[in-house]
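Field log, afternoon session.

UNIT: design team B
ACTIVITY: writing a sequence onto a fixed backbone
BACKBONE:
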């Protein structure tokens, strides 16, 4: 199978030029001017951008959490991702307490079997090193292509780990070449504040945000940075929301420490005003860390522009408003934490980042594709447009107007955080390893097309599949 994409504006993290691009089987084999080649499929891309398929390093599909299970399974979540121009994601395996990491990996892989619409990898969320997986077992994960360990410093009584577990995992990562990821909020302090709020009769969704103050995120972010530095492990702080967390990351990076930070689309657009909406509407905005004071929006734009934060992910963790969020109708602490967003990241960042003049097109590609691919061991197979890279491509129409709505999205979620927002610019054709997934708003591919990707260790490149012994 060959594909010729003619006359598109190819945009990578570093370059921006008009050319033809030729794909043979799964790989980009030629880029040049006026290529005189026959192809099984020709895509006319004049006036369109040709971008690398976006990489979302933070998603939760088919995940038990908060007394329920996220509403998008691998098929629906990845279908939504494909429509949004995301061709690879890294999902979180949550180690069930008392279970080995191998059993958890098997469980998560079997949930994906036959359902995959895009390529995927896994992070391992460590919850228990006493009765379940051991440090020795944890050390074996990178050779299986699971090259990042996640730790939750919040969700006391559920996923939260103590500092001993955090530090010991960091020490293993330093030896095995894994990247440590943290959900940085002080879970003990939050637990005290939640109990105080409920005792005072404050049960509405707004109290989710008020009991998780920015200081709790700032403190945990700084603690994780210091501990990772002590252990000699590289650290990636997920879903950064506020100045209090941006500042310690900026300081560590100024010092040249191996620290990176990510924020998510929703933190640029939502605020305390949303979670305060009446009639339980605010529950749609219950995710952690919580929505913040709107003054943080510009803090985050500035941080992604200046590379204090290096990635924008989605933290797609969708629950139905009607039937799942309602578990917490009378008690905000029982509202499952998480929100949808896997489909709208590229549209929203293009509209409010690039079109509004906050970041360049190159920087958008870097934040949504190249940096996550590099940090999570997928580059240069993924995350760029280059000869030898996999043909994960988005032909993006910068003129196409779309009004975002739950009634039109492909997630099973019954609401959209950006409902009613009109954007100019949207994917027109999305290819995964040279195969068309989505064309003109139609799904063209079938489940099973996506693959599990064995990721490279932190700082290492992922060689082309053909040259890898067992991909
Ligand atoms: O509220 C959120 N973010 N839910 C998903 C789990 C996590 O903390 O990332
Ligand atoms: Zn989290
Ligand atoms: Zn998450």
């Amino acid at each position: 199978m060959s594909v010729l994409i003619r006359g598109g504006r190819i945009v990578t993290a570093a370059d921006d030029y008009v050319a033809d691009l030729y794909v043979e089987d799964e790989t980009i084999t030629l880029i040049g001017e006026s290529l005189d080649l026959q192809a099984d499929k020709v895509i006319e891309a004049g006036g369109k951008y040709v971008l690398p398929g976006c990489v979302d390093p933070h998603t939760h599909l088919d995940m038990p959490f908060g007394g329920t299970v996220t509403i998008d399974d691998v098929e629906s979540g990845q279908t939504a991702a494909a429509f949004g121009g995301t061709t690879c994601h890294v999902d979180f395996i949550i180690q069930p307490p008392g279970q080995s990491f191998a059993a958890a990996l098997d469980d998560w892989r079997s949930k994906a079997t036959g359902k995959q619409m895009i390529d995927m990898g896994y992070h391992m969320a460590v919850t228990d090193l006493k009765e379940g997986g051991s440090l020795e077992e944890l050390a074996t994960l990178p050779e299986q292509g699971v090259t990042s360990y996640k730790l939750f410093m919040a969700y006391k009584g559920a996923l939260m780990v103590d500092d001993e577990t955090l530090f010991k995992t960091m020490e293993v990562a330093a030896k095995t070449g894994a990247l440590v990821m943290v959900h940085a909020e002080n879970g003990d302090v939050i637990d005290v504040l939640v109990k105080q709020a409920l005792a005072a009769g404050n049960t509405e969704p707004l109290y989710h945000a008020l009991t998780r103050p920015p200081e709790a995120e700032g403190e945990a972010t700084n603690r994780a940075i210091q501990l990772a530095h002590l252990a000699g492990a590289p650290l990636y702080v997920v879903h950064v929301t506020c100045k209090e967390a941006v500042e310690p990351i900026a300081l560590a990076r100024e010092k040249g420490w191996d620290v990176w930070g990510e924020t998510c689309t929703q933190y640029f657009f939502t605020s305390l005003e949303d979670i305060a909406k009446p009639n339980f509407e605010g529950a749609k905005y219950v995710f952690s860390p919580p929505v913040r004071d709107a003054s943080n929006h510009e803090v985050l734009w500035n941080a992604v522009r200046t590379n204090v934060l290096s990635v924008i992910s989605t933290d797609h963790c969708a629950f139905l408003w009607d039937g799942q969020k309602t578990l917490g109708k009378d008690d905000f602490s029982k509202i499952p934490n998480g929100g949808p967003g896997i489909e709208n990241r590229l549209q929203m960042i293009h509209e409010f980042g690039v079109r509004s003049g906050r970041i360049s097109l190159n920087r958008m590609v870097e934040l949504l594709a190249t940096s996550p691919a590099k940090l999570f061991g997928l580059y240069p197979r993924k995350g760029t447009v280059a000869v030898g890279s996999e043909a994960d491509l988005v032909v993006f129409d910068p003129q196409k107007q779309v009004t975002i709505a739950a009634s039109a999205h492909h997630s099973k979620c019954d609401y959209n955080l950006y409902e009613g927002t009109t954007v100019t610019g949207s994917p027109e054709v999305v290819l995964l390893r040279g195969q068309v997934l989505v064309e003109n708003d139609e799904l063209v591919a079938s489940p099973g097309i996506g693959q599990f990707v064995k990721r490279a260790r932190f700082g290492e490149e992922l060689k082309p599949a053909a040259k890898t012994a067992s991909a």
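LOG NOTE: The pocket of N-(aminocarbonyl)-beta-alanine (ligand 1) is lined by residues 60, 183, 287-288, 315, 317, 337-338 (CB under 6 Å).
NEXT ACTIVITY: expression trials, pending approval
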